[in-house]
Specification:
It comes from Pelecanus crispus. With about 170 residues, this protein is mainly beta. The protein has a domain of about 55 residues. Helices cover about 5% and strands about 25% of the residues. The protein starts with 15 loop residues before the first strand and ends with a strand.
Length: about 170
């Protein structure tokens, strides 16, 4: 098992390339490549009768995963220089697909907010008694300094800050 990539659930396109030559394999995710040799004397890749993209169609097939099938978009799927998506779009007999699919990929709706002055901010009332907190956002700025997120803690005199300092994101818990 080889693992590459991180933060792949960011709604951005990511590329995957697998190259197999004799027993040399190059596995690339977003321009990061891991080169390795297969064990044994494998000079060719002996695939099962089908190659599945997005999930495993038949329970019990090799590579059974307890995870759900992929939910997202693929583009530019090529197998030995054959455009798989084009074959599927034209309903060619060597390709079949199962489930709900469309030959488009909707871009996520982005709703930005711009803070026009240094005194602008958004405030959300806090909730107490939560074991976990998940916060995510994207930002862009031309400034190297600035407060991104802050909160006071209810049961203590402290809080946390998420801020830009010298062009880097920092977190401070106190």
């Amino acid at each position: 098992n080889i693992t590459l990539g991180s933060l792949l659930d960011d709604q951005q396109w990511h590329s995957v390339l697998i190259e197999h030559f004799n027993n040399q394999v190059n596995f690339t995710v977003d321009k990061h490549t891991h080169h390795f040799h297969t064990k044994g004397e494998y000079n060719y890749l002996d695939l099962d009768y089908e190659l599945s993209f997005g999930g495993i169609p038949v329970p019990g097939k090799s590579g059974t995963l307890s995870r759900r099938n992929f939910h997202g978009c693929f583009e530019n799927i090529y197998y030995n220089e054959v455009n798989i998506i084009d074959l599927a779009r034209r309903h060619k007999s060597q390709i079949y697909f199962v489930g709900n699919m469309s030959f488009s990929c909707l871009e996520p709706q982005v709703v930005p907010v711009t803070f026009l002055s240094s005194s602008s901010y958004l405030a959300l009332p806090g909730t107490s008694g939560q074991d976990e907190v998940f916060i995510n956002f994207q930002f862009r700025t031309w400034n190297k300094e600035g407060l991104l997120l802050s909160s006071k803690l209810r049961q203590a005199s402290g809080g946390f800050l998420l801020y830009l300092s010298d062009g880097k994101v920092k977190v401070s818990l106190h």
